[in-house]
Amino acid sequence: MTLTTRTAPGARSAGSSRAAMAAALLAAVAALHLLVSGQPLGAITGLLDGAADGQAEKIVWELGVPRLLTALLTGAALGVSGYVLQATLRNSLAAPEFSGVNPGAVLGILGGLTLGLFPADSAAGALLAALAGGALGGGVTWLLSAGRDPANLVVHGLLGSALLAGLTTMLLAYQPSRFGNALRWLIGSVEGRVWEHLAFASWWIAGGIALAWACSGLLAVLAPSDDHAASLGLHPALGRAIALAVAIALTAGAASLAGAIAFVGLVAPHVARRLGGRVLAAAVIGAVALAGADSLAQLAGHLLNGTHRLGVPTGVITALAGSAVLIRLGRSQ
Fold it and tell me: Membrane spanning segments where (predicted)?
């Protein structure tokens, strides 16, 4: 007798409903982001109609849309990276910034700029430097926690992050004149990215999210315990190495676009799990969270400086909001 499995109509309709809700949420946040950026509604509608010939429409297309896509891509990458780290390390406080990966990626970018390895506007150079630095940061954390329970890796990640932050401070002290340029990498900002940066980083982040989604089964096996993974025929160390490589690649892609954006990778996975979602849900929630945070940053800039633009880095907003969530999570441990 042959058994066939079919997807229940209710499951298909539930999945379609969630996809429609995610699309509607992304569209609403994107519209809000473009409106808060100060662009007139006529310019936005003209862009949607394909009539981007006027100056206002060109400004939206060349400045507003790249900034929005930078926020969405960066948030999605961090959300998925945090989800992978939390599932793999079995720690609800695991996040790119607490595992040495994000500080290492920023150190790699600043180190490459200081040594003149790539120009400041090089998208490929920033990504490769972030990847090398992220791997270094993850490696330092891994060495500090060698032979110990992976669930306690966050503690060693904080130690590794402190070491990497010290090296970054040394770089800034070595060339103080670069501090103004380094500030956007240290705090995190989605401003100033253009289509060239997005064209290079978008495929990297999309590919990383696709790999994380393909590893959903691997993450589900690793999440309970190493014994559970071994009983199902998976080598825990090998599976963890694959998952961490994906997380490092996604964090490097995010850092190459926006620098050290904090707490999105911590919060988005928690919200995704509460909503019953996994990798793709973490990507959508991370994208929405960072685009919303950047909208608040732009709004704060308008309010604080009247009619003139005062740049408020997006990383400031995520740090303030994420600190409250971190305190809540810390008390629940």
Answer: 20-48, 68-89, 101-120, 127-147, 153-174, 195-222, 242-267, 279-304, 310-329
Please report, for the chain, the start and end positions of each structural domain, with discontinuous segments joined by +.
61-332
- Distance, CA of 128 to CA of 111 (rounded, Å): 12
CATH 1.10.3470.10 fits 61-332, yes or no: yes
Question: Which stretches of the chain drop beneath a pLDDT of 50?
Answer: 1-8, 41-42, 307-308
The confidence score (pLDDT) of residue 1 equals 36
Structure tokens at 31: 């519209």
How much is the pLDDT for 318?
87
User: Are residues 127 and 161 in contact, defined by beta-carbon separation less than 8 angstroms?
Assistant: no
DSSP letter string over 103-167? Answer: HHHHHHHHHHHHTTSS-TT-HHHHHHHHHHHHHHHHHHHHHHTTTS-GGGHHHHHHHHHHHHHHH
Backbone angles phi, psi at 21, to 5 degrees: -65, -40
Minimal CA–CA distance to 65: which of 93, 94, 35, 95?
35
